[in-house]
Specification:
Layout: E1 3-7, E2 10-13, E3 18-25, E4 34-39, E5 46-51, E6 58-60, E7 68-73, E8 78-83, E9 92-100, E10 103-105, E11 112-117
Parallel strand pairs: 2-11
Antiparallel strand pairs: 1-3, 3-8, 4-5, 4-9, 5-6, 7-8, 9-10, 9-11
Length: about 120
């Protein structure tokens, strides 16, 4: 079963950028569709970006489209989320996970906190 460790979060001013990383171990990372999810206080966890096994096909939630970019390096078993033009509403704990359809599949990591100040 794949294990996931997210990193790269922090405190940033509105308009700033962060790059999140998710390192995977175990499982067959190269074959997985991977996604980044986020959970803000008092809200449900939501999918914000998804990338297929080859990196050719991507999906973004409307709220982040044009600002976030998902990518992966299968040789390093790592998926990234480049976040630009950050807004206070992007404040959340960010998680990565394997995606089946539109849902996460597998155990969750600890996530990484992103806080955007206005």
């Amino acid at each position: 079963q794949v294990q996931l460790v997210e990193s790269g979060g922090g405190l940033v001013q509105a308009g700033g950028s962060l790059r999140l990383s998710c390192a995977a171990s175990g499982g067959n990372f190269r074959s997985y569709t991977m996604g980044w999810f986020r959970q803000a206080p008092g809200k449900e966890r939501e999918l914000v970006a998804r990338i297929n096994w080859s990196g050719i096909s991507t999906y973004y939630a409307d709220s982040v489209k044009g600002r976030f970019t998902i990518s992966r390096d299968n040789a390093k078993s790592t998926v990234y989320l480049q976040m630009d033009s950050l807004k206070p509403e992007d404040t959340a704990v960010y998680y990565c996970n394997r995606v089946l359809g539109v849902s996460a599949s597998g155990p969750w990591g600890l996530g990484t906190q992103v806080t955007v100040s206005s």
